[in-house]
Specification:
- The structure is a single chain.
- By secondary structure, this protein is mainly α.
- The protein is built from 13 helices and 2 strands.
- It has a two-stranded antiparallel ribbon with strand order 1-2.
- A hairpin with a 6-residue loop joins strand 1 and strand 2.
- Helix 2 runs antiparallel to helix 8, helix 4 runs antiparallel to helix 7 and helix 5 packs parallel to helix 7.
- It is globular, with a radius of gyration of 22 Å.
- The two termini are about 20 Å apart.
- It comes from Halostagnicola kamekurae.
- One of its GO terms (cellular component) is membrane.
- Belongs to the inorganic phosphate transporter (PiT) (TC 2.A.20) family.
Length: about 400
């Protein structure tokens, strides 16, 4: 019976990893796919490799937090409980992926494990409090860094980098499967400048994939590792393979949502947001804190737009109470490579409306599911462990 439960637990962990691949590939490579730089197949391959690198290095710290520190006794990680916890994590994420929305895997996993600890009286409130504090502080940090970059550096970055979108109609990089052996296909007639900008967007996507691996691998394997039923290295490898399967399959939905439906975010802005968010996530993973990349990135976008919009007014003018037009659409105020105007010299009329940047319907669906998915995992796990006698708590 024990062997059967362990096998089921591993299968459910694979299911969780599969859904993590679906939820995290979109945020990492959505801009590159949406800008027609790489195909979905290339995005999935890169995500698989860099996620595994992050998981096998820094990801171990987050596994230790969720598997050993979030609860005061790892004895509650029985095989039955592990299967149930992973089921709620994977099931909730699957709902988000099916809706095409990349939900926060960290919040979903922490919610399920914390529910187990709370239902059994073994929750480490201090560790949960530390995680919760960072969940509040990290998005604020992302917002203010985005704001500073938007006000003082964004137009310079835009001028220097000059990222241009691919207008050829085909991805610059794709996998050609017309022959017996798949090979890398490229598009002819692309300028060096376009290749340089495109390469930068892909490199940033790889950084995001790495940061996802550092934070999210624990969500799939921490209960099994914490219980001692599965050694850490095999668990990390199994989880990474499951993520790769998700990246090549169900992630196509979230790639469409993040690459095309929700936003027309300029590539320069997407690169800035990715660097800010990935750096924060990797830093938190280094100290063992599971972080939500999606939430941090969202606040970085808002901060970047706010800082960018406030360039129409000098700080001295704002101190005198003069009105400042603030719009997230300010991110599209300049064309790539356009010379940077001085602060206070930009025209308010040049700032597009926020509706030109975000699709309201898709954005509302994303915000709703971002809150519903972790709630399903947490509430479902708590009610199960508290009132279902099967687990013997």
């Amino acid at each position: 019976m024990t062997e059967v439960l362990l096998f089921v637990g591993i299968l459910v962990a694979i299911f969780v990893g599969y859904n993590i691949g679906g939820a995290t590939t979109g945020p990492a490579f959505g801009p590159a796919v949406g800008a027609n730089i790489i195909s979905k197949g290339i995005a999935a391959a890169l995500m698989s490799v860099f996620f595994a690198i992050g998981a096998l290095t820094i990801g171990r710290q987050v596994v230790d937090t969720l598997g050993n520190e979030l609860v005061t006794s790892t004895e509650i990680f029985t095989l039955e409980a592990n299967v149930a916890v992973l089921f709620f994590i994977g099931g909730a994420l699957f709902i988000g992926n099916y809706a095409g929305v990349p939900a926060s895997t960290s919040m979903t996993a922490v919610g399920a494990i914390a529910a187990l600890g709370f239902a059994t009286g073994e929750l480490n409130v201090a560790v949960l409090g530390e995680i919760a504090i960072w969940w509040i502080v990290a998005p604020i940090i992302g917002f203010w860094i985005g704001g500073v970059v938007g006000r003082y550096f964004y137009t310079r970055i835009n001028e220097w980098v000059a990222i241009e979108e691919n207008t050829t109609g085909s991805p610059l990089l794709s996998i050609d499967t017309s022959g017996h052996v798949p090979r890398l296909g490229t598009v002819a007639g692309v300028s060096r400048r376009e290749w340089t900008g495109s390469l930068l967007v892909v490199v940033i996507g790889c950084l995001m994939g790495f940061s996802s691996g550092t934070s999210n691998i624990a969500n799939a394997v921490a209960p099994l590792v914490g219980s001692g039923e599965l050694a850490e290295d095999p668990a990390l490898i199994i989880g990474s393979i499951a993520v790769a399967i998700g990246a090549f399959t169900i992630a196509r939905r979230t790639l469409d949502t993040l690459g095309n439906d929700i936003t027309n975010l300029p590539l320069t802005a997407a690169v800035v947001v990715a660097v800010i968010s990935s750096t924060i996530v990797v830093g938190l993973s280094w100290i063992g804190i599971p972080a939500s990349f999606v939430v941090i990135a969202t606040m970085a976008i808002v901060g970047l737009g706010w800082g960018r919009a406030t360039r129409t007014t000098r700080l001295s003018d704002a101190a005198r109470g003069e009105e400042t037009a603030v719009s997230v659409g300010a991110l599209t105020a300049d064309e790539e490579g356009e010379p940077s105007p001085e602060i206070g010299e930009e025209k308010v009329s040049d700032i597009p409306k926020a509706s030109d940047l975000f699709d309201p319907t898709t954005t509302a669906r994303v915000i709703l599911m971002q809150n519903v998915v972790p709630l399903i995992s947490t509430v479902g796990a708590f009610l199960t462990f508290r009132y279902v006698p099967l687990f013997g708590f």
